[in-house]
Amino acid sequence: MAFIFMQDSDGWGTYRLVGDEMYLVLRGEDGGLGLQVTPKPPNQTKRNDTGKPWPARLVRRRARELQRGSNSDKSQLLLVASQEFGGADSWALIGKPASFSASGLRCDTGLHVLHGHVEIGFEGLRCFFSDEAVAEVVDFDGDHGAVCPRCKSGIERGQKCVACVHCRISYHQSEDRSCYGYGPTCVTCGVKTSLGGDPEWSPEDD
Ligand SMILES: [Zn+2]
Ligand SMILES: [Zn+2]
């Protein structure tokens, strides 16, 4: 799972990155400018438009287009999901060369692959990226013969389950069998079980 943290009047707000591309844009607000994450800026067509993660060559081509400066994308950054940069949920940030910084370093190429916790600086503002794994209920599609570590019985394909964010072992998690949420920690690795959907990390921890 990947998130963008943006500061608003109540503190750090969390925005979950979904789909294959998102935009980080400037927005006017009372008392100044802020950053906003949006699936698609107004009056723009989607760049990838397949609904699937971007192939690495498309990410690089897009970065080159921005380097040539043939368009008017100065006031936005593009976040693209691209598995080819490593990991099932990996994202890259593309913008005009030197228009943004990542973890305090100016990005002269205009392409930065996001891993872990990254502070993004843009137009004098900042936000944070995090690719922290968050527990989610999904249909089990793992190996036949998988056994739930809580109740010690099998997990069938298609059954509702949750994988531990740390050791990735799967537990049943449905209304009549809430094995994942039954205990405060994972039986196997001891990491806290939480189904709130919110990341544990926050920019304040840095
Ligand atoms: Zn179980
Ligand atoms: Zn675990």
Low-confidence stretches: none
What is the CATH class name of the largest domain? Mainly Beta
User: Major sheet: size, sense and barrel closure?
Assistant: 6 strands, antiparallel
What is the alpha-carbon Rg in Å?
19 Å
Give the SSE string. Answer: EEEEHEEEEEEEEEEH
Strand neighbour order, sheet with most strands: 2-1-11-10-7-8
CATH architecture tag of the largest domain? Sandwich
Strand content: 25-35%
Number of domains: 2
Total beta strands: 14
* Bound ions, cofactors and other small molecules, one mention each: zinc ion
Query: Termini distance?
Result: 19 Å
Tally the helices: what do you get?
2
Please tell me about this protein's structure.
By secondary structure, this protein is mainly beta. It folds into 2 domains: 2-132, Tumour Suppressor Smad4, CATH 2.60.200; 134-206, Herpes Virus-1 (2-Layer Sandwich), CATH 3.30.40. It is built from 2 helices and 14 strands; from the N terminus they run ββββαββββββββββα. It has helices at 56-68, 179-182; strands at residues 2-8, 11-17, 21-29, 32-38, 76-81, 91-94, 100-102, 105-106, 111-114, 117-122, 125-130, 137-139, 160-163, 170-172. A 6-stranded antiparallel β-sheet has the order 2-1-11-10-7-8, with no helix packed on it. The protein has a 5-stranded antiparallel β-sheet with strand order 4-3-5-6-9, covered by helices on one side. The longest helix is centred in the N-terminal third of the chain and has 13 residues, at 56-68. The protein is elongated. 30% of the residues are buried. The model has no long low-confidence stretch (mean pLDDT 85). One zinc ion binds next to strand 14.
